[in-house]
């Protein structure tokens, strides 16, 4: 299918469809599709919303080095920096530092169909929050950084049961 390259390129680079002047369901859908086709699986919706589309494949943008770039971006106060694209690391980093700055609690809601990537994005968000909160190499921090993911694994394992007749999913997590 041949698409007009200018429209394709324009929609692919739109990181927040809410800022477009001709906003409609079709435009939002086209924007999400073009970004997904370019392996840009995260799209901002306003300043605190994020749409994540599950690529069902490994995306290198979920590595530890990328997570550290988002933490560094938040701390960088210079005006000439190039903003990083939307990501779950960015959302978690913003929530963490907003809580530290204002002492107001923050929430992240992961919603979607089965196999839409909620669990993976929740794990990435928790990993980011742990990395930011346990930045000192103390013994207590190191222990916490390994115990939280391990306990989540145990909860998730026992939260998914299977019988002869049906698969039962009881969502259990540390969220």
Automatic annotation (TrEMBL):
InterPro entries: Kinesin_motor_dom_sf (IPR036961), Myosin_head_motor_dom-like (IPR001609), P-loop_NTPase (IPR027417)
GO process terms (BP): actin filament organization
Binding-site positions, ATP: 112-119
Keyword Hydrolase belongs to the record: yes
GO cellular component, one term: membrane
SUPFAM superfamilies: P-loop containing nucleoside triphosphate hydrolases
Domain Myosin motor span(s) in chain numbering: 12-175
Swiss-Prot/TrEMBL keywords: Actin-binding, ATP-binding, Hydrolase, Motor protein, Myosin, Nucleotide-binding
Pfam families (alphabetical): Myosin_head (PF00063)
Keyword Electron transport: no
MF annotations from Gene Ontology: actin filament binding; ATP binding; hydrolase activity; microfilament motor activity
Similarity section: Belongs to the TRAFAC class myosin-kinesin ATPase superfamily. Myosin family.
Protein's UniProt name: P-loop containing nucleoside triphosphate hydrolase protein
Organism of this sequence: Mycena belliarum
């Amino acid at each position: 299918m041949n698409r007009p390259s200018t429209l394709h390129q324009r929609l692919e680079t739109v990181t927040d469809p809410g800022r477009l002047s001709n906003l409609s369901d079709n435009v939002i859908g086209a924007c999400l599709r073009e970004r997904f086709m370019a392996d840009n699986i995260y799209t901002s919706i306003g300043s605190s919303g994020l749409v994540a589309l599950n690529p069902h494949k490994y995306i290198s943008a979920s590595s530890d080095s990328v997570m550290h770039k988002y933490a560094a971006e938040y701390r960088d106060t210079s005006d000439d920096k190039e903003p990083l694209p939307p990501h779950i690391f960015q959302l978690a980093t913003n929530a963490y530092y907003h809580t530290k700055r204002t002492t107001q609690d923050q929430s992240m809601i992961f919603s979607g169909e089965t196999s839409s990537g909620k669990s993976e994005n929740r794990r990435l968000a928790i990993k980011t929050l742990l990395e930011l909160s346990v930045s000192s190499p103390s013994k207590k921090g190191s222990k916490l950084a390994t115990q939280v993911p391990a306990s989540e694994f145990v909860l998730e394992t026992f939260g998914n049961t299977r019988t002869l007749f049906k698969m039962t999913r009881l969502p259990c997590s540390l969220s």
